[in-house]
Amino acid sequence: MALAIAHSRGLDGLNAPPVRVEVHLASGLPAFALVGLPDTEVKEARDRVRAAIVNSGFEFPQKRITANLAPADLPKESGRFDLPIALGILAASGQIPTKALADYEFAGELSLSGELRPVRGALAMALQAGDSGKTFVLPAASAGEAMLTRTAQVLAADSLLAVCAHLCARDPLAPPPMPVFTVDGENAAFSPPWPDLADVRAQSQARRALEIAAAGQHSLLLAGPPGSGKSMLAARLPGLLPPLDLAAARESAAVLSLTGQFRPEHFGLRPYRQPHHTASAVALVGGGNPPRPGEISLAHQGILFLDELPEFDRKVLESLREPLETGRVHIARAARHAEYPARFQLVAAMNPCPCGYHGDSSRHCRCTPDQIARYRARLSGPFLDRIDLLLEVPALSADELASRSPGESSAAVRPRVAAALARQFERQGKPNALLAGQEVDTHCAPDAAGLALLQKAALRLGLSARAWHRLLRVARTIADLTASTGVAAPHVAEAIQLRRLPHAG
After folding, report:
1. 182 in Cβ contact with 146 (< 8 Å)
2. CB atoms < 10 A from the CB of 142, how many?
3. Cα-to-chain-centroid distance, residue 96
4. pLDDT in tens, 407-420
5. Cβ-proximal residues to 105 (8 Å cutoff; 6+ apart), any chain
6. Which are the contacts of 222, defined by CB distance < 8 A and separation ≥ 6?
7. 8: Cβ–Cβ under 8 A, 6 or more apart, which residues?
8. Mean pLDDT of 295-323
């Protein structure tokens, strides 16, 4: 009888708990059993591992093999356990030294030829593997991602044979090259790969609203007829924002890594997610078995753009209410619980009516009042109450379309946005959109004239307490853009103008 132990990592939400892969060889009829709550992908490792070992030039032991993935109460999924299972079998059968496994953690999916394929969640696993003091061995395609931690010791391997050569001290593995970072403060020549705001003609108020939304990281709803530039404006918001700092970039990358969508060359760039309006609640918020992050978590530290907002299922939109407030989403299922970060900036666009031309002076609206009312009723009051900026984007005139005069570029607006955000972090340690409770009273209190104006607006517009606080936060951002230390009446007045849809109701 022989026993060998290899170390790996599982995934439970964003956590990567350690997993001991215990391989036991015993006499008896040849068999290969996998225990420890493996799912179908893990159970299929028996055939992948057998073929990979044989095709790598090793002998597959004709013994009774038991591979235990401990702890037994943690569900195991994906092919990341192929490599540690194969190494455990080779060590238990005496083909590689057993003691060499103690200083390493392994993750990797094996092909039938013994090549290593990339795995999901490499960054999330490496963040916690760095605390164990062990070196993390990963497929070459995933090792560069793991290097973004800057703390974990990572080695890259192309095949099972290369890992075995390293453990036998014949041909040492090398760490992957350090990726080029584009996070804030490390690349002064930061030039984001987003469309330029200069492409947007006219629409001065919408451009101003976009700058305010960027400066305070406020949520924004643009309403207007088809072709007025709503989607075009939304696509230019990421280009107005500064790159992420290192901690935020790691958070964003770790979530994207869970679904295999992260690319090291995009590290430090804010994610921009645009799900189709047919997306389900699980696709948007997250879920499944095992639980996976949804679009709101994949947009963490970035922007979630919902085009054709009323076309989304109402229940799907209502599921966004809590994450908009808390910045996190907790997925509870009968057997599994997972929590993911969801601090995203919501930008949405909608038509004023089903045909799109209600309130447009140049086109005739064909919708009945009942059709318009049903269309707008898809957006509940509590949902709209959680959006900071509500703005109508009018259709462009023929003269505006023919004009060739460029607007202000993203490069010109970005320094103003960065300066306003810097003032907010210096004053309160967070963007204005995240202020809550007493923080709003402390940092956003208007002067006497501004308070009187806000009170009149609250009476006329029927503002809720939440809308009152959102107006104050937007007014604070407008003041920050002008480098004003206090919130005055002009700042409040502009905030009120940017929270009205004239053709609503």
Report:
1. no
2. 30
3. 41
4. 789 999 999 999 99
5. 7, 8, 9, 18, 129, 132, 134, 135, 136, 137
6. 206, 209, 230, 233, 234, 347, 348, 349, 350, 391, 393
7. 18, 19, 21, 80, 81, 83, 84, 105, 106, 107
8. 94
Name every residue whose Cβ is closer than 8 Å to that of residue 298 and which is 6 or more positions away in sequence: 255, 256, 259, 261, 271, 273
Two structure tokens written together for 260: 């295999």
Going by C-beta distance under 8 Å and a sequence separation of 6 or more, which residues neighbour residue 386?
219, 321, 324, 325, 466
Element of type H or E holding 263: none
Question: For residue 189, what pLDDT is reported?
Answer: 45
The pLDDT score that the predictor gives to residue 505 is 39
Output the pLDDT for position 181: 63
Please enumerate in sequence order all residues whose Cβ is within 8 A of that of 407, keeping only pairs 6 or more positions apart, or say none. Answer: 197, 198, 199, 200, 201, 202, 207
Query: Which DSSP symbol is given to 178?
Result: P
Residue 447 has pLDDT above 90, yes or no: yes
Helix H or strand E segment including 368 = none
Any idea what DSSP says for residue 159?
B
Which residues does 404 contact at the CB level (< 8 Å), separation at least 6?
Answer: none
Whole-number average pLDDT of the chain: 89
d(CA 333, CA 288): 9
Of the candidates 293, 291, 294, the residue with the CA atom closest to the CA atom of residue 306: 294
Q: What pLDDT is stored for residue 177 in this prediction?
A: 83
Do residues 36 and 277 touch, judged by C-beta distance below 8 A?
Answer: no
Residue found by looking up tokens 């963490």 in the block:
300
181: its two tokens: 């970072």
Amino acid identity of 14? L
Query: What is the C-alpha to C-alpha distance for residues 88 and 90, in angstroms, rounded to an integer?
Result: 5
Structure tokens belonging to residue 215: 């400066």
Q: Are 300 and 342 in contact (CB under 8 A)?
A: yes
49-125-94 Cα angle (round to 5): 35
